[in-house]
Design goal:
Order of helices and strands: HHEHEHEEH
Largest sheet: 2 strands, parallel
Radius of gyration: 14 Å
Structural class: alpha+beta
Distance between the termini: 29 Å
Helix content: 25-40%
Shape: globular
Strand order of the largest sheet: 1-2
Number of strands: 4
Strand content: 15-25%
């Protein structure tokens, strides 16, 4: 929800927002509708992307309901789609705040 609340700030800075979740699209839709989410939320049901990026939360084994959940965090990509910054937190109960993400992205992109 924080990302949606801060979406205009990201857009004014020339930044886009995309989220990835391990939930199937039909499970995401009630959240999208309830909070009027205006940015893409991608499904990674098999955790293929999460595994490839090395951000799979290792607390859960295949077959457990939370399997596929990534560590919470963000990647910052430049206009060439190259990763130029990232912030991830090990615990799933903590989150990276949207205001901090925006400040970090501005800083990282300004230095590239």
């Amino acid at each position: 929800m924080q990302l949606q609340e801060s979406l205009a700030d990201f857009e004014q800075s020339g930044l886009g927002v995309i989220a990835i979740t391990y939930d199937a699209p039909q499970k995401q839709q009630p959240f999208i509708d309830k909070f009027n989410i205006q940015y893409p939320i991608l499904s990674d049901i098999e955790a293929t992307t999460v595994k490839a990026l090395g951000i799979l939360n290792q607390q859960y084994s295949e077959g457990q309901p939370a399997y596929g959940i990534p560590y919470p965090g963000i990647y910052v990509l430049d206009t060439n789609k190259k990763i130029v910054g990232k912030v991830f937190i090990e615990g799933y109960k903590q989150r990276v705040y949207a205001s901090s993400v925006l400040a970090y992205a501005r800083k990282v992109l300004a230095s590239n």
